[in-house]
Design brief:
Helix content is about 50%, strand content about 15%. The chain is α+β, with helices and mostly antiparallel strands.
Length: about 230
Amino acid sequence: MPRAVTGRDWLASERPVQRLLAQGAQALSDAELLAVLMGSGSAGASTLELARLALSELGGLAGVLHAPRRQFEAVAGLGARHHARAQAVLEVAKRMLRQDLARGPVMNAPARVRDFLRLSFGRIGHEVFTVLFLDAQQRLIACEELFRGTLTQTSVYPREVVRRALTLNCASVILSHNHPSGVAEPSRADQILTRELQNALKLVDVQVLDHIIVAAADSVSFAELGLL
C-alpha cells in the first residue's frame, strides 16, 4: 500500500530545486542534480535518498544515464518513469553535440567529436562501427552505425562504406568504433582495416580524416597517433 507523503518527504524532494533556483545548477551535488531530474521518490525513500542509491548502485552519473532499463529498474525504488527521464537527458546531450558538429568544421572541435562518440556508444556492451559523413566544409551530414558485432569484433565491409559515402555525397569521413573492454588502444587489425577503408574511399575522392576508438572513459585518435 502506498504511504502518505509527509512534509519531510516534500522538503527532501524540493530542497535541491530551491537550491538550484537560488544558487544555480553548478552548486548542486551529483545526487541533488539527479534528484531534480527524477522529480519524485518512491514509497520508501525521498527523491534525494533514491538519487544517492542510484549513484551508488549504478556507478555515478554516467552509469545512471547509460544503464539498460533492466539494470536500472533492478535498483530498489527506480522505475520506468525514472529511466525514461534519464534516457531523455542523455539524448538531449547527444543531439546538442550533433547539432554543434553540423554547424562548423568538425576538425576545429576534436574534443567535441570525441565527446559525442563516447557519449553515443562508448559504453555499449558490443562492438559497433560508426561513420561520421562530412561535407566539403567538414560539417556533419550524418552519423550512422553501419556495422554491429560481438564483444570483441565487428565485420566491416569497405564496399558498404563506399556505397553510403556516395549516397550521401560526402567529401570526407571520420571512422569510429568502440572497445567494450574499456581499453581504447588500436589493434593491428584496426590499423589494417583503416588502410583498407582509406584505399577504398580514395577511389571515389573521399578522404578519411580520422579513425577514433572510444571506450567508456577514454578515446584514441589515429590522426593524433600518426597512423593515417
